[in-house]
Description:
This protein is mainly α and 581 residues long. Helices cover 46% and strands 6% of the residues. It has helices at residues 3-21, 81-92, 124-144, 146-149, 159-174, 180-193, 203-216, 219-222, 240-251, 258-265, 272-282, 286-299, 324-342, 349-352, 360-365, 393-398, 407-418, 444-451, 455-469, 507-515, 518-533, 542-551, 559-566, 570-573; strands at residues 24-26, 32-34, 42-44, 122-123, 236-237, 355-358, 377-380, 483-484, 487-488, 493-497, 500-504, 574-575. The strands form 6 sheets. A two-stranded antiparallel sheet has the order 1-2. It has a two-stranded parallel ribbon with strand order 3-4. Strands 5-12 form a two-stranded antiparallel ribbon.
Amino acid sequence: MSVRIVRHLALVVACGFTAACQGVVTGPSGSAAFVEGAHMGVGASDSGGGGTGGRGSAAGGAGSMSASVPYAQTRLPRLSHRQYDNSVRDLLGLPQTSAPARDFIPDLAVSGYDNNGDALQVTDTLVRDYQRSAELLAESAVKDSLDRLLPCQPQGDGLSCAAQFIDKWGRRAFRRPLSADEQASYLRLFAGAATGKYPNGEPFTNGVRLVLEAILQSPHFLYRVELSHSNAAGPIQLSDHETAARLAFTLWNSLPDPTLDAEADAGRLHAGDQLRQQAERMLGDDKSRAMLVDFHQQWLQTNRYTANSLAKSTALYPEFTADLVPTLQEEAARFFAAVLYDEQANWSALLTAPTTFVDAKLARLYGLTASFGPGLTRVDLNPLQRAGFLTQVGFLAAHAHADQSSPIHRGVFVQRQLLCAALPNPPPGVTAGAAPTPPEAKSNRAKVTARTASPTCVGCHGLINPPGFGFEQYDAVGAFRQSDSGEPIDASGQLTAGDEVLTFSDGVSLARALAGSKTVRECYVRNWLRYGYGRVEQSSDMSDIQNLGLQIATPEFSVLNLLVAMTQTNAFRSRPEELQP
């Protein structure tokens, strides 16, 4: 592509972003739509009619609309890198392993998740990432899959076929029909490229290539633009196309499919039952399976397993080597998918199911004596020793020291991730093991208790230590043990969770107690709202959190039911009332 065209496209992108920041979103022709108070975070420095009865059919009243008030969030959330990858994959028919955003400047995680709309800003570096990716994707697409992308065979000057392509492909990319001005502008762009803007290639192919580049850099592709408005008081209902996009990016982390597009075009996504029907259909697609796994990976931090975080003493644990890291990540992912998606279990199975996936090396850490090959195989574990995610080797090893278990790290995880407790960080200057350990303290529990008994420490460690001690039967690599330093292990305790007191005798009973806790249920829902809605929960969300927490207490109410129920809230289907000038 010529330097002039590169600069032109970069200017189109930059002007589109800048205009949006100032309250205006422009199409390629410069036609503008007013967006009061819009903010897209640009310029920050670099420092259908588809079927029914699918998965997740909502039980227990999930079909009724909630009375929650939507939270004032950005009307122009940028696609996360995961959503970008999935969208270009679906648009261009790329392999499942394709991930062009892997080379982008990373997304910032807020409250544990990398899709928070208020944090997904566009820096100068990311603009260049988008431009480079669009150029590479467009060049590859016209070379390898042009026939698949085109809805017609070009004849003559190709303008008629180009117009059909722009109308169909642009509609999918923008998640709405293109305006006449947008169609005309992209057709002019096609015609300009067809007259020699690239050094090689056929005129028609070059025109399609430039249109692809432009659309893949358009704010209408890179952002979920929500421009619906109302002069009436109260929450503003999203348009059908905006609802379709929100539904697709929530359940699939990708753009709507043709079935959902058709439902939006026909105006059939206003009512709760219509939305529920589509949600149930969509949950039958493997894209929602991947989304469910991604949520649990971010919530339970298995995406943070690294060779560094899992490094162990080679003298004590020679069998625990760096090549276990991807195995432990895959073990957790397979567990999430099998139990919560394939079997459509209640959320509590996450903490109670005595099953996992092992290969020959991992099986030895679980104390299994049967023969296993190099691939992961599902196994049932001893239910007296293992119950769900919290007793998996990966979690236990990631929250331990190189040579010993860590009740503090494990306890902090339970408080923050499962109880949604706002624990402060340690005071400045405090280091592990700084306090003297009395000589009579032999076990790890006794040592930790002694080191954290001072008035400065006990305020937080009175909350942290009890759940951490519940996992003392698991050593630094997550292997089960019955003694520590020659003494029997005491893994019993009590844990305060909201207005509940949870009593346990070991890691299994602790996991089951957590699974039965109202506080943990509501924390689980909070995290789904953070991930699904792309924002931090607000006080106005509490009624939804409590209602959904009650619903998932029913054993027959699966995680897929919960996802359907989330789409039935006003917070999902609306934006808040806006101040009128």
